[in-house]
UniProtKB/TrEMBL annotation:
InterPro entries: Amidase/PGRP_sf, Amidase_domain, NAMLAA_amidase_2. This is N-acetylmuramoyl-L-alanine amidase. SUPFAM superfamilies: N-acetylmuramoyl-L-alanine amidase-like. CDD domains: PGRP. GO terms for biological process: cell wall organization; peptidoglycan catabolic process; peptidoglycan turnover. GO terms for molecular function: N-acetylmuramoyl-L-alanine amidase activity. The lineage of its organism: Bacteria, Bacillati, Actinomycetota, Actinomycetes, Kitasatosporales. Residues 66-195 form the N-acetylmuramoyl-L-alanine amidase domain. It comes from Streptomyces yokosukanensis. Transmembrane segments: none annotated. It is an enzyme of class 3 (hydrolase).
Length: 209
């Protein structure tokens, strides 16, 4: 190998090492951006039982089914994910309070339109089955079954639309099907909700009105 080759080799090694170091530093900064709020005295004040949507009832999910965060400062929120419980309201609350279940949504909307919040929007709920989507979205469950059209009442659509409109307004989320999605549309999911009976056109019209 000539001296020129050696110099080029050393330069390539230096450049490659610098690029790797820069990449590592960038990853470290990104991780710190997600963790800074955990320092003593930094975390945003929280009030026990507080809700993000006026009129919602607070029922806490198990802390095993979500991760504390400080969204949108550490994770931008740009999606709403629509779910269906595949069961009653009571059964959904029961599993979301079960630490062994491993999942929970931020909200449940009942057939009669009443709304329960189980996880603060600040926090990352384990609802979508995909980490990046959990971090970037708010999950809303709807009482009922995907194969039962009668599950989706006008009271439910109206209440859920008001909730979603408030979430979109809070985070600047566009009201469209790219940003308001069904669980079935999350990459890698094996879920089918909200199913073929969910009226997306009706829902988006209500959100916009």
């Amino acid at each position: 190998m000539s001296d020129t080759d050696r110099r080029l080799g050393r330069r390539a090694l230096f450049v490659g090492g610098t690029a790797a170091a820069v990449g590592t530093a960038a990853l470290a900064r990104e991780e710190l951006r997600h963790l800074w709020w955990r320092l003593p005295g930094v975390e945003r004040p929280r009030v026990a039982g507080a809700v993000d949507f006026r009129g919602a009832r607070w029922v806490a999910a198990s802390s095993a089914n979500y991760r504390r965060a400080d969204r949108p400062d550490d994770y931008p929120v740009d999606r709403v994910v629509v779910h269906v419980t595949q069961g009653s309201y009571a059964s959904a609350v029961k599993v979301f309070q079960d630490p062994a279940h491993g999942a929970a949504a931020h909200y449940i909307v009942r057939k009669d339109g009443r709304i329960t919040q189980l996880i603060r929007e600040l926090d990352v709920a384990f609802h979508a089955g995909e980490r990046a989507y959990n971090e970037r979205s708010v999950g809303i469950e709807h009482e009922g079954f995907v194969d039962d059209a009668s599950s989706f009442t006008d009271a439910m659509y109206s209440s859920s639309a008001r909730l979603t409109a408030a979430i979109c307004g809070r985070y600047g989320i566009p009201v469209d099907r790219e940003h308001i999605i069904g669980h079935v549309e999350v990459p890698g999911t094996d879920h089918t909700d909200p199913g073929p009976h969910w009226d997306w056109e009706r829902y988006l019209q209500k959100i916009k009105s």
